[in-house]
Amino acid sequence: MSLLAMERIKFLSTRSPWWCMALAAVLSIGFTALVVGLVPAEELGAPIDTATTQAGYLWGQMIIMVMAALAATTEYRFNTIKTTFLAAPNRVTALLAKTAIVAVAGALVGLLLAFGSWGISLLLASDADLALNSGADLRAVVGVGLNAALTAVFALAVGILIRQSAGAIAIVLIWALLVERILITVIPRVGDDIKNWLPLSNGDWFNAAGLAGSGTYDVGHGPWVSLLVFAAWSFGLLVIGLLVTQKRDA
Q: How far, in Å, CA of 138 to CA of 79, rounded?
């Protein structure tokens, strides 16, 4: 518990998480407001539903990745990681405590973004059916918290491996915006098959499955299998990061 308290204090006593959380809220909720309030339904290709209320989550997800990567790399940047490992000689335990704090923070931010976007959509599209009546609707909103937690673990693991802020942030953003969602899909014959087992694609499908217009996210298996695939990627990468940290100098 003392390690968790220490990591919580370190996480909340720096400015970058607070700036990231504020920016994630502005971008995600603001983009959703623009889509729901200004784009005609016929241009959206489907009626406004719970999936539409999460139109801005991609931007929030990018900021959550930055926040998590910074949580891992800032200590290396300012060389405070040595103090952390002196206070907690078991490096794995120390990093698992950091992972727990960052994952909880990611989940809470994700829920804030999801319900903030849903709430503003209720105000801007009062005639749309946005009630959370089905499992698919709940996953589209409440499930964002699980998606965001795994996103945070994924980015934190990259930060643990890279140890350099700019490099880790560049990798997670390029992976999320370019590699997984664009470059992989243009590989002849096998591109779509590979994409079906990649982390963020499965996170997208977990939230979108069962909703109108979700075909572009379909990875060929159920939403809960998708969540397990995403978790396997995130925690698998974390395990690699922990093993590497055990073997190299702080």
A: 43
CB contact set of 171 (below 8 Å; sequence gap of 6+): 158, 162
- Delimit the domains of the chain by residue range: 2-247
Question: Taking Cα atoms as reference points, which of 197, 186, 248 lies closest to residue 225?
Answer: 197
Amino acid identity of residue 132, one-letter, is L
**Comparing 39-43, 107-111, 176-180, 184-188, which segment has the lowest mean pLDDT?**
39-43
CA 45/CA 136 separation, integer angstroms: 19
pTM of the model: 0.92
Query: Nearest 5°: CA angle at 105, between 70 and 161?
Result: 35
- Average pLDDT over all residues of the chain: 89
Q: 111-145 burial, b for 16+ CB within 10 Å, e for fewer?
A: bbbbbbbbebbeebbeebebeeeeebbebbbbbbb
Residue-wise pLDDT tens digits, 45-71: 567 788 888 989 999 999 999 999 999
**17: which 2 tokens?**
């998480």
Q: Could you tell me how far CA 126 lies from the centroid of its own chain?
A: 29
Helix %, strand %, coil % for the chain, to 5? Answer: 80, 0, 20
Collapsing DSSP states into helix, strand and coil, what is residue 177? helix
Whether 123 and 176 have beta carbons less than 8 Å apart is answered as no
